[in-house]
Amino acid sequence: RKAEAEAAKKKQLAEAQRAKDIAEMKTQLRRKAAGISAAVTQFFQAVKARGQKFSALVAGKWQAFGGWRGCGERIKSATGKGVALTRKGAQTASQKFQAARSSDSAKGWAEKIRRARAKAIAGAWVLWHALKKSIVLALQRWRGLPQKKRTIILASTAVGLLLICLFAFSQTRSHLRASAYEQAVARANAAFQRADFATAASEAEKALALRNDDPVIQKLARDSQEQYKLQASLEDALKNGQTALAQQDYTNALLWAEAALAKSAGDTNAADLKFTARQRLDDFLAATSAARTAFTNADFAAAETNAARALALSAKDAAMLQLKADAHTRLVAIAAYRAALTQAQAAFKSGDYTNAALLADNAAQKIPGDADAVRLRERAQKNLNDYHQSVSDAHAAFAGLNFLAAQQNAAEALSIYPYDPAMQQLRTNAAAKFDDQKIYVAALKNAQAAFDRRDYSNTVRFASSALDKVPGERAASVLHDSAQNTLNRYRATVTAANTAFKLGDFFAAATNADNALAVYGNDPAMRRLKTDALAKLGDLKIYQLELANAQAALARNDFSEAVMAANSALKKMPGDAAATKVKDAAQQSSNDLSAAVAQAQSAYVLENYGVALTLADKALALQNPNPVIAQLKSKIVRRLDGQLIDLLASFGLAIPTELKYAEMNQVEKLGTIGANEKSYYLSQVTILEKNYRIANWLNESRRQESIAALMQTIKDWK
Fold first, then answer.
1. Which pick of 33, 182, 224, 573 has the fewest CB atoms within 10 Å?
2. According to the model, what pLDDT value does residue 543 have?
3. Residue 266 DSSP SS3
């Protein structure tokens, strides 16, 4: 509304200026018309004066001839009438011209001047006819005159006629020039008034060619030339301005309009051109400003609309074309972003986190850095990562027989994907396995406790219960087999002891009873049998037997039995060096074995498998077989093989069939890795190879072949 009010105000000012310019133009034209009227009046006054002089001359000539007085009076009368008529015609022409001068019609001026001139010519013809009648009357009287008078009259008449003819010729020529001059002046004035300055200049030049001493016509000629030149430049400016306006070049159109108004301040066409150019330029600038502001404020719909308004006023404006295209692109991107974000939110709400992450990422690419899309993508990706981690941990725990952790990880995965059938099944299986495992762990614990207290019957029973829940489990199997073999050996020695005692071979009986007591040290039957046998053999034999048993036990690394036998020998022969040596060696070896086993187990817990294997070998060097060390080495080799399998899978290498028993994790193939990561993996393989070498496992189960292939693959990995 403010712009419209300003435009209306500018239009009113332009119209007022135009009316003022028109009034000034009319004033100038009236002044020029007054000058022309004065010139015409002067002309007719000159004609009147010459007619009076001519009338007096003719009257004087004819009065000199008394006999011709009547003829002279007639000529004088006729001349007077002609002069009076000419005077009256001149006065009438002057009056008509003065009357026409006040009119705005140049055509009316010319018509009234023409009529006045016609009356003046009619008066001249009346004069001629009067002279003609006088001459006819004079000729009628000529016949009665004497010869001398005839000669004088003839001569006078000839002179008079000659003078009249010369005067008539002169007047006619002057009249024709004056008439042409008047017509040229009238046409010049009429053309000047209708703004036909080229014609006005041409007619003014014609008038000056007939009469070059008239300052009014000279001024008219100069004014016409100046106005013609001004009009030509004004028309060029208007033409250029209209062309610029048509080409939507409002700045240049405005400049041309200003130039035209500088040449003619009241020109309505120039004022209209200026008003139109200014209004369109203001509209264009307002539209471009609104478009840029809307674009800056991210109101791309308004930006596109205002850019279209601007382009409607200036279709080739590069900035608005680009802004409109950019705004349209942003609108399309926003529409695509909103659609993608809506779909992503719907997918997230329905628990489809994979598609939610993809769609949210697509939305984030449409409007980079958008907080909603990025936040939704991160939430969906976190749920996916948590789900995959939980699934991986659940499988790893299940494979590692950690069924409680498997249940917990499966529950975490199901909290993200509640209807995942694999996790539901794994959780169910883990729960069942966990119940079996609790029974297995309790049975294995009881079996181990029975084995430690040399209760081999219960060891076999508890180990069998554990194997019922976890068939083929190595620890339970080792305990079971060790206890069963010990029981078998015990029963064989008991049978042999009893048989030898019955046969009177008391030494064999005592030896076998001692072997049986090595299994069951508190067996009363074997103790009694041994006592009876030793009593039969005597103390020496008892000493020899106990020393031999101690040495045999030490040789087979049964250090506790060796200590017991050595103590028995020392009871028969206190301070005996041999028995003491056996006892001290057995006790030291027992202590070293316990320390090595404890250190090996600690190293295993710390996952320092190389140290654990070294200490295990040290323990086995002291006592072999040792079920605890055997079980520990079994765990270590399974862990090492598991690490090897993970590395092979990470670098896309085949896993040997012999190693698949240790496969626990589902490992994905690695992508591109850097130099630091490559060095890390090479160091891991080197440590793994070293651990295999310590336990002499490198050449078994294609481990060395797999490690060599793995080393080469890591070195070549991109």
1. 573
2. 76
3. coil
Angle, nearest 10°, between helix axes 627-650 and 577-605? Answer: 30
- SS3 state of residue 523: coil
What is the rounded CA–CA span in Å between residue 546 and residue 367?
92
Question: Helix 524-555 and helix 506-519: axis angle, to 10°?
Answer: 80
Q: What type of residue sits at position 610?
A: G
Q: Which two tokens stand for residue 565?
A: 């036998």
C-alpha torsion 235→238→242→247, nearest 10: 100
Asked if the model's pLDDT at residue 96 lies above 70, the reply is no
Structure tokens at 634: 């079994």
- Angle made by CA atoms 574, 576, 580, in degrees to the nearest 5: 100
**What pLDDT, on a 0 to 100 scale, did the predictor assign at position 495?**
94
Which residue type sits at 48? K
Q: How far is Cα 551 from Cα 238, in angstroms, rounded to an integer?
A: 135
Q: For residue 54, how many other CB atoms are within 10 A of its CB?
A: 20
Phi, then psi, of 211 in degrees rounded to 5: -155, 105
Percent of the chain exceeding pLDDT 90 equals 9
227 contacts 192 by C-beta, under 8 angstroms:
yes
DSSP symbol at 658: G
pTM exceeds cut of 0.85:
no
* Helix axes of 474-503 and 506-519: crossing angle, nearest 10 degrees: 160
User: Which of 67-76, 458-467, 562-571, 599-608 shows the lowest mean pLDDT across its residues?
Assistant: 67-76
Q: pLDDT tens for residues 122-156?
A: 655 655 566 566 666 666 665 666 776 667 666 66
Angle at 576 between CA 573 and CA 577, to 5 degrees: 170
**Helix axes 609-622 and 577-605, enclosed angle (nearest 10):** 160
For residue 496, the model assigns a pLDDT of: 93
Q: What is the mean pLDDT of residues 305-312?
A: 91
Strand intervals (E) in 594-649: none
| Alpha-carbon torsion (118, 124, 128, 130), positive or negative | positive
So what's the pLDDT on residue 69?
A: 46
Which amino acid is present at 10? K
